[in-house]
Fold this sequence. Notes:
Elements: H1 12-15, E1 19-22, E2 29-31, H2 34-53, H3 60-89, E3 94-100, E4 103-108, H4 115-140, H5 148-167, H6 175-188, H7 191-215, H8 221-250, H9 256-259, E5 263-267, H10 272-282, E6 286-290, E7 296-300, H11 302-307, E8 322-324, E9 330-332, H12 337-346, E10 351-355, E11 361-366, H13 367-374
Parallel strand pairs: 2-3, 5-6, 9-10
Antiparallel strand pairs: 1-2, 3-4, 6-7, 7-8, 10-11
Amino acid sequence: MSDPRTSxxxxxxxxxxxxxxxxxxxxxxxxxxxxxxVAALITWAFAPQIESRVPGIGSGAYLVSxxxxxxxxxxxxxxxxxxSVVALHxxxxxxxxxxxxxxxxxxxxxxPRTPGQDFLVAVAGPAVSLGIAAVGWAGLxxxxxxxxxxxxxxxxxxxxxxxxxxxxxxxxxxxxGRLLSALVWRLRGDRLAGAVVAGWAGRVLxxxxxxxxxxxxxxxxxxxxxxxxxxxxxxxxxxxSLLSARLRDRxxxxxxxxxxxxxxxxxxxxPVSEAxxxxxxxxxxxxxxxxxxxxxVGLVSDAAVTATPIQQRPWVDVGTLSRRxxxxxxxxxxxxxxELVKTLAxxxxxxxxxxxxxxxxxxxxxxxxxxxxxxxxH
Length: 378
């Protein structure tokens, strides 16, 4: 189950969503604290079954049951790692893999460029899960029945078979939803159409997963609760996938040049009241602090100006409301679409200095303006 997102930043061991346990193929692997809860539940639930199937094991059944929980999440990790390896093969960056209460997620920070790439990235996970199940089944044919190894292999075989089949169900955010999306994309030539079809299929699937335990007679409370959790995961994921698809569809119309505010160059010691007056007079919507030579040295915070009471503005220098220009927060006016959004995500800030092809000040890009453009507000 892949969940493309973007992020950047310092020490992943501190910033990640859990405990960093390794970096295979350069991909950070995190284990969420919720895994401890799931491991405890699995240990408690499976221990009686193991005790009944392995005569004389006694309290060792809990140790074997915990080993099953660890091996189960190991197979989930292989499932997610397969997504990441295929994505890396196609040059798609992978931020991290996180193992959590409902399984795992591969955070691939760029969308596949073709339906074929999308299909192969998605199918890799279920293929590995079903492959593990096949290997487990073959092993059971030669292992003596009733042994600890046979019991563990049998449970892992069934678990991976279920994981593989469940993930092939045709609805986002499951892998089967990605496969359906890629198929529609290939047939219609429209990425958005594929995402919309698969997203709505995910909503229908969520309702079916929720109702199934309620419709079957004799279902336990645990199964009903578990079905509700899975249904909520699928429903939320499907809604997020639909929203992301619609936002991506707007990307071609998003450009730094179109959204940049005209900037007024001001000296640092100029009172805020006078700077605002000049901005209104010239029609400028932003202000850039310049040095005596006219070189930009700071961006005036639009929020800080708004927050400064009118009666105090004659006594406050505009330079005190500015932020030194970080070279990383200087953008070119030609940036647009996915490249612009990716750049803003990698360098979060409220305002950016925008320059033209010659490096001259073009204006100021305000993050809130980009967000409004995405929301369809003008």
